[in-house]
Amino acid sequence: MLLTCASMTNTLNNNNNNNAASKPRELRVSASTPRLADSATACFLPRPHSSSSIQNDMLFCDVLNASSTPSHADHIPSDLPVRLSDEESPSASPPPSPTPVPTFSRSLGLCLGSSSDDDQPLPIATVSVPKPELRTWRITSAGLVSTMGAFLDKPKTNKDNDSGVGQGLKYAMATMQGWRVDMEDAHVAELSMGDASPFSSWSFFAVFDGHAGSVAAEFAATHVLQTLVEGEHLQQVAQLLAGREDGRLCEESCQLLEKGLKQGFLALDDKIREKLDSIMGKDRSGTTAVCAIVTPSHIVVANLGDSRAVFSRRDEATFGTEDHKPCNEKERQRIISAGGSVMIQRINGSLAVSRALGDFEYKSNTGVSPARQQVSPEPDVYFFERQSSTDEYLILACDGIYDVMSNDELCAFVHARMEVAKEGGMSKVCNEVLDACLQKGSRDNMTFLLVAFEAAPVVQEERAKEEEKQLAVIKSALQDIIEESLQNGDSKEELCVEYVLRTLNSTRPEVVPVEGHIRLLVRSIAEGVVAEHTRSSAPPSENGEKTASPGIPAQ
């Protein structure tokens, strides 16, 4: 596989005047290197140099599986070059090559394999791409790293749930690993921020979406509340509100609270730096964040990165926080001023969020403040005065949700599911959001936190009964498919969710509504039916409990 890049040819030739210009350089990969996909692409970016003197030509190299879509977690470290080998003598005769077959590369805008050298830029690297594993690999100075952006062969759909009631509100949370190899999300849900006034009547919720590892997200979730409450500005808020019986935030206390949130996140970022510096191997993880403080009079939201808060009020337009992306003009200007660049909508062609905790390789410019680094840890802060007659719910979620649902689409789904969630309530709604996003193609970790206020949607009995009938028809069809399959002599190994869904789609498509939210939940319904059948048909174990049969995955 021959890769050429017209934009880099002159740079390399100018620094290698004594070398034969027609000889391609070869990228050495050891025999122990994990095997990559035939369809993988090696992406080369020029390394920035401080002078025109270059001893070794260096390239950044990120080998990506062509079938995978990288997210902000799949970023190339800016300080880990790959050196091209100079082992072969320039005078050595090149091996005979087969008859070239011209092919046109759209990305490079040139013809590869032409027999004429006059109208072609010279090749700068020859890369051999062996047989694949379905992983995304990153070449670093320590070797190939496969843990960032890698995907499983099937999603992990088990969910962790949390819920609670208090302070005049209800909350529920669901999180799912999905297609990712590791779970890097974290969350916080506290109905009371502390024992002292006014924090005892304040609630706190947060979602952290980690990348390049889970350390930053987990540390942030553990220490964010204490860091905020102990901060100078929130202590001033407490003193200011000490003489107010109603506990309402005034203009001065709102200003102090905004400063406290911004300074608190900067302090939390410093603590994360100390934590990561103490870890052997220099962990490179980072995390986005979105949090909410709910007081008796206000809802205060802070976010950085592309995790998002969405607030719904009855008969009003949905509010959503702004994602911090390098392509946003104000973010782009800060990145450039701090010495970075924006390429392919990423910082230095690598990180796809412009504000985050951690990611300290982008925070090394000593000439600017922490908030003005390429990646800023300073959040945007929003205030909403509570209105008991119209406030419905607040959503905090990571980008695994918003990758496949817009704000309005998500709110419509949540509203409709809350009106039919008789059993399981809000936790069921949260689980259904994750299932729907998985069905719509989300391949990221997913965390969804729902806070319901006084005017939240309530169960509509007629709609709930109508949906129960639809679900009964679908479940009956799924049961029939399983029974027919076993009667026809099919093995139990075939009774996986995918097999049941394919059969349902080909033999009983009429039982699934063409439109509506139930269509997005068919997979989770099938998982439940298969799991129920697995439990009922499994042979008893030695202690008398039934065990899952081999080949039938427990859902």
From TrEMBL:
Give me the stretches of Pro residues compositional bias: 92-101
Cofactor (UniProt): Mn(2+); Mg(2+)
Please state every residue range assigned to the domain named PPM-type phosphatase. 170-453
Bias-annotated ranges (Low complexity): 102-115
Show the segment(s) annotated as Disordered. 10-33, 71-125, 532-555
Q: Does the keyword Cell membrane apply?
A: no
One GO term in the molecular function aspect is: metal ion binding
Family matches, as CDD domains: PP2Cc (cd00143)
Keywords, alphabetical: Hydrolase, Magnesium, Manganese, Metal-binding, Protein phosphatase
Give the PANTHER family listed for this entry.
PROTEIN PHOSPHATASE
Family in the record: Belongs to the PP2C family.
Entry protein name: PPM-type phosphatase domain-containing protein
Which source organism? Answer: Pristionchus fissidentatus
